[in-house]
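quick one before i forget lol
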Amino acid sequence: MNVSRSIPVVKPIIRDSGPGLKQDICPRRVDINRVADLIEDKYSCNLVERHLHALKRLVKHYKFGFPIKDLVQVFKILNLCAEKVKDQYAYVQPICKILNLCGLPFLKEKSTDESNFAQVVSESISQMGFLLRLPNKEIRLQICDSIVNLFCKDPPRREVEGFFTTSKTYNKQMIEESRVVETLVMGLALVENQLGVKLRIIQTLQYLSSSVMNCNLMLNAQAANKICRLMNNPDPSGQLLFRSSDILWILLEKASKKELVNQLKDVACIHALKEAFLNKMINGYCHSDRQLRNDLLVIATILAENPLIPMIETGFTKQLIEFAVFPEVNTHNPLLHDLKISSNPEDFEMKKIFFQLLIVLTNDLASIQLLSKVKALQALFYYIGKNEKIGIRGWSDAQFEELQLHALAALMSVAPLMLEDYMECQGNTRLLLFLDWCVSQDPYFGKGNSFHATGGYGNKKAQMRYCLKLMRSIVSIEEEFINKSLCDQGAINQLIDILKNMTDILEEENEMNLHMQTDILIILSSICENDIHRKELFGACGVEVLIKLLKNDPMKFYSGLGHNKLALATVDCIWCCVVGCYTAEDSFLEMGGIFLLLDWLESSSEHMHNVILGTLLDLCDNSKVIHHMKVWRGKNDSTAPCHLLHIWRHIEKNMRVKRDEHGRILDAKNPLFGNIQEEHGLNTLPANYLSPAVFDVYENPRAKIYSIFCKLGFEDLPGLSSHDYVTLAIVHHYLDLKEGSIWNEIEKELKQENIHPVLRDIEGLHAITKHYENVSRQVALYQTEILENQQKHELLNEQKMYDKIRHNFKQRELSMKSWNEYVARTSNHEILKAIQFFKTALPFNKIMTESTILKSTTYSLPITD
């Protein structure tokens, strides 16, 4: 007998609560179904002590979490206990303990349990939220804690024998799908008198708002409206306002901004925001209070973008504007008497947010009236000047520079809407003085710390850039008294000098410099347009600068730095500041401006053609321009008429106009329309709208090319080929062909609208359309004649060339025969003299070369030069 066999072999099982070691759930199993039956059965439903004992064993058995497959029974037990807690307070503790276990990750036996039981898990979490209906503080607090733990905490490292914990990602997903966040929002109405529970629910919502889906669900439950209304409820800790504003801020970032603004547009919410902001503005002294104040100000700024928000009606807008202009503008508001704004980072950020608020308020006319009443422009102009450190309220150099740039940016939006206030503040004078300081040699070291200060480190370029942008926004309104004021104060000469210096300095071109040059040109164009006296002030100095800009390489248009905008502004400035003034036009012609414009027309992209052609057309009113255009020569020695016809063909090619390979008209009914226009079809338009055929005259450069040819003439044009003359035939009859297109359009419109004119009108319409079709056919016949004549001319030239070759060949034969006879009867000395004569008196290619002469002789002659 083997003794070792009598000793049983037992596999050791180590149970420990240490991390990383496996554990079983409990030595004695608990039948969860029997527990549920015990509480539910009508014969044992009143045995409270047995219920409590069974629940205690249940909690101990599942102390590491509930398996997914048991969740249905777990929440059945919870709901049964919830019904009994109304009469028996003893059930509160077991409910809280079970809810605490629900905050642990769920247990699964197989990896497929997560997907198989997903609906069970989401419905269980939803049921947990519904338990907020129980009017018990401990249960409500435990519900919030369990949801937060399940959503935020990572699964523990310990393992349970036979089970695996669900992942944090899975738990988050189930909470989102359960829509428990909606239940929590609605539960706020149940806990109005329980401050602690209310704070815990708000805190839970704050955690859950990290999910975009939860944010959208919160808005579905009107969370923004409900949270905003209760943010000012009594709370000694101050957490309610802080957490509520944080939730609103997160909802603005992650959820629908439109829906949030829609929920906050009632008067109660705006009053709550107003009260909260005022409280923190006046009584906030610590760092966190100032940060919260700034957050509320940002929310108010976003709400102010919507004119439907009752901010003016509640007095919130006026209050905000008064705070925004403090302390730059004196006010009688008692709330501001003891207000102190320092240079700390929070107050500095608040000042910048106020500037942004002033920009936003310009969307509403009523707000603009308040801005005028409170003298907002005066507050903004306070920063437009050199930092003299006198009266500047404690801002550092970097802070003042940034506020100065923000003020300039705000003025760009506010000043054009408040021109009377702008003139009262002597805005033009201030800007010209500030611009003069920007270009002066005064030492200044910009810090370049803000978005607006890009490119302005160590210099005043950022200030100059925004000053010019502000002037551009002012003059773009085209108010005569503004432009007159600028002109009277010498703005034209000042701007020309600045532009001249910028073009003279040989420094690397950058985006900022190009933008500033563009702004100066646009400002000059706005001031000088339609005023001959101002164009005379622009004069030769301004034309000289334009000539320098026209000499820029057209290939730079595609650099991406802004050369294309500068080019457009240059051509526009020629039209506004030169065209119509004889002295300026003469200076422009003397400096070769027409030649440079034609060079640009040849080298630039098609997007520039319309602008350049329009300027050339207006300049053609000056008879001297015609001569300049006729003598211009471009690449490959092309002429201006030749290039204009080339552009015409390119336009028609892009429009897919029906032409044959030689450029002749193929469609007599629509000789100018392309396939693109025909595919678009004809839509019925109101009487005050331009039809496509008429609109084409405004937008398409062909009308400008036709008008230029009317100035140049259609005959005796230099450098044209037969192909050009074929195109010129269409250009010559452009007006007739365009009239025919309009009549065809009228006929189609009548058919489309089912309008039947009287017989005489129909006959007249048919006669008109027939006439213009005949015009098209006549043009096509004329084009054919041009091509045939060209072909005949080419055949004649070819015949002449052959005749000349034949004649030259005969002459060569006669010359060789005479030479051979001469050699036969002449001495060597005479032959050498004859060779020298041929070399000096006759070109080699006319009769014969020296080698030919020598080969024809039978003597050995010495070769001499």
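fyi The chain has 42 helices and four strands.
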